Amino acid sequence: MKQSSLLPGFAILLLLTPTNPAHAQKANLYRSIEIRNEESWQAALQIWNWAEPGYQESRSSKLLAEMLENRGFEVKRGVADIPTAFTATFGSGKPVIGILGEFDALPGLTQQAVPYREANPKLTYGHGCGHHLFGVASASASIAIAEQIQAGKIKGTVRFYGTPAEEGGSAKVFMVQAGLFKDCDAVLHWHPSHRNAAGDRSSLARMAVKFRFRGKSAHAAGAPEQGRSALDAVELCNHASELLREHTPDLTRIHHVITSGGGAPNVVPDFAEVYFYVRHPKGEIVRDLYRRLVLCAKAAALATETKLEVGFEGGIRELMPNNTLGRITMKNLRALNHLKYSNAEIKFARRIQTTMSKPRSLDDIAKVYDLSGQIGRGSTDVGDVSWVVPTTGFNTSCWVPGTPGHSWQAVACGGTSIARKGMNLAAKVLAATAWDFYHNPQLLKTANAELKRRLGNSQYKSLMNPGQKPSLDYRKPASQRRN
Questions:
Q1: Which pLDDT value is given to residue 22?
Q2: How far is CA 416 from CA 203, 410, 419, 424, in A?
Q3: Is residue 303 a contact partner of residue 262, using CB atoms and an 8 Å limit?
Q4: Model pLDDT for residues 332-386, shown as the tens digit of each residue
Q5: Closest of 108, 111, 107, 90 to residue 99, by C-alpha
Q6: Does domain 211-316 match CATH 3.60.15.10?
Q7: Residue 421 CB-density burial (10 A; 0-12 exposed, 13-18 middle, 19+ buried)
Q8: What is the pLDDT of residue 479?
Q9: Residue 10, burial from CB neighbour count under 10 angstroms (0-12, 13-18, 19+)
Q10: Which residues sit opposite 87 in a β-bridge?
């Protein structure tokens, strides 16, 4: 990237460097990220174009691992018995700062980088949550920190965590259980969004399950009495879950999709599958909601004389907020946010906003929202990490204001310079925040004390079943999972 394209705030920081060593060292971090701006963007575009589903991100994982390995990081692949999970470590000693990176895509969101609905004929998945940006920005920040460690300006260790299958696969839970975070002093993460935001907030705990029903096939017109419809069982289960909603605690979320329902209307389906998510701000409540949902499935099987197989996909905890660390990310995001759209980006943004139900002012990109004390309506396996090590995250504006996550509009924005700018900002905020952690040991002690205070007498307990293994084929079609 040419020097003229640097953000205004970067030039201001350079002016401050003669009298402020902290500004000078942070400016070196930003300079490192800017030097790799084009390389990082090409890597993000490559992952965007691959759009690989959870636990199948072999190329995306390899690309990120090699980016770090080529910069001197010690890379360990296939950690936690997950082929696409890895760690990349640089430096030695304390403190150890972890930076998370994701890279999986979502099904059914294939889309070109244009402001109208146009699927990519080569793909069925799309990066509707911006994870192609997430992993790359985190890797770029990790490299910038490693350079300062090598130069003797930072003492300690930086570790990048390549974390696959965030969208339903819960890889971080298994990485926590494998002890991969036990020596960390703090962990950083970020996420693409339609706005810039930080703060001390939580999320929804979640459990996922696939109910598979097996019945008897028969001619639906000629011999219907001989058939036992697995699809009927799915429909009864779904109806029961809708009735269950009336009798659940506030903020409960129960949603499903039928992943297999038969192939022809004149054949009674002997196999059908439905995929459920159950969410609530408290993991303990999610456990009981899941128990009640299983009763719905059992009742459906009983009523239709079909056999039920419960495919428990696992659970993730709610985020454990950390105000001590959240204040630092907020400070750096506010200081570094100088996002501004070009004329071409304004034209793109206005066009794509005509497809949205709740567009927001384009001036929104200049703001930073404080989400402290809020409960996000999404779920993330970062939650499990936050129960065992002080953790903080933030959002940067990588999509046009008003863009909903998990939408084709988010996929479209993710292939444009709008996403590139948000990714670049995220890398700088990660690097600046990590720098603050390295240079303030008391901050890390306070953050750890806050985590212990929030936990109280509670102990981290996963929402997984004892001994559960990663469901590495959870994104494969039901027909390939039946055995």
A1: 74
A2: 29, 10, 6, 13
A3: no
A4: 999 999 999 999 999 999 999 999 999 999 999 999 999 999 999 999 999 999 9
A5: 90
A6: no
A7: buried
A8: 65
A9: middle
A10: 76, 161
Q: Over the stretch 108-129, which tens digit does the pLDDT of each residue have?
A: 999 999 999 999 999 999 999 9
pLDDT tens readout for residues 248-257:
999 999 999 9
HEC readout, the chain:
CCHHHCCHHHHHHHHHCCCCHHHHHHHHHHHHHHHCHHHHHHHHHHHHHHCCCCCCCHHHHHHHHHHHHCCCCEEEECHHHCCCCEEEEEECCCCEEEEEECCCCEECCCCCCCCCCCCCCCCCEECCCCHHHHHHHHHHHHHHHHHHHHCCCCCCEEEEEECCCCCCCCHHHHHHHCCCCCCCCEEEEEEEECCCEECCCECCEEEEEEEEEECECCECCCCHHHCECHHHHHHHHHHHHHHHHCCCCCCCEEEEEEEECCCCCCECCCEEEEEEEEEECCHHHHHHHHHHHHHHHHHHHHHHCCEEEEEEEEEECCCCCCHHHHHHHHHHHHHHCCCCCCHHHHHHHHHHHCCCCCCCCHHHHHCCEECCCCECCCCCCHHHHHCCCCEEEEEEECCCCCCCCCCHHHHHHCCCHHHHHHHHHHHHHHHHHHHHHHCCHHHHHHHHHHHHHHHCCCCCCCCCCCCCCCCCCCCCCHHHCCC
User: What pLDDT, in 10s, does the model give residues 380-427?
Assistant: 999 999 999 999 999 999 999 999 999 999 999 999 999 999 999 999
Q: Please, what is the average pLDDT of the chain?
A: 94
Among candidate residues 385, 388, 411, the one with its CA nearest the CA of residue 400 = 411
Specify the pLDDT at position 7: 39
Which among 396, 398, 395 has a CA at the least distance from the CA of 345? 398
- Band (23; pLDDT cuts 50, 70, 90): confident
Q: Is pLDDT larger for residue 18 or for residue 176?
A: 176
How many percent of the chain have pLDDT more than 90? 92
In the chain, what are the domain boundaries?
A: 3-203+318-455, 211-316
The domain defined by 3-203+318-455 carries CATH number 3.40.630.10: yes
